[in-house]
Design brief:
- By secondary structure, the protein is an all-alpha fold.
- It has a domain of 44 residues.
- Helix content is 63%, strand content 0%.
- It is globular and about 35 Å long.
- This is DUF2783 domain-containing protein.
- It comes from Rhodoplanes serenus.
- InterPro entries: DUF2783.
């Protein structure tokens, strides 16, 4: 799993993400985010990579975490 910045155009990605959620309700925005997660997960495909990403994303929210 890569933790170093690897986005071709991070500002453009963020702008597109914000634009996609513009005008949506909070629930619709959450649905959009979840749909995006599943689409990106399908692009990654490899279970080991997806499991590592889930673990890293959840790390700050664990009770035993010293980083959250």
């Amino acid at each position: 799993m890569r933790l170093d910045p690897n986005l071709e155009d991070p500002d453009g990605f963020y702008a597109a993400l914000v634009a996609a959620a513009e005008g949506l309700t909070e629930t619709q925005s959450q649905d959009l985010a979840l749909r995006l997660v599943f689409l990106l997960a399908n692009q990654v495909g490899a279970k080991a990579a997806l499991d590592a990403c889930i673990d890293e994303a959840a790390r700050p929210y664990r009770k035993d975490s010293t980083h959250g």
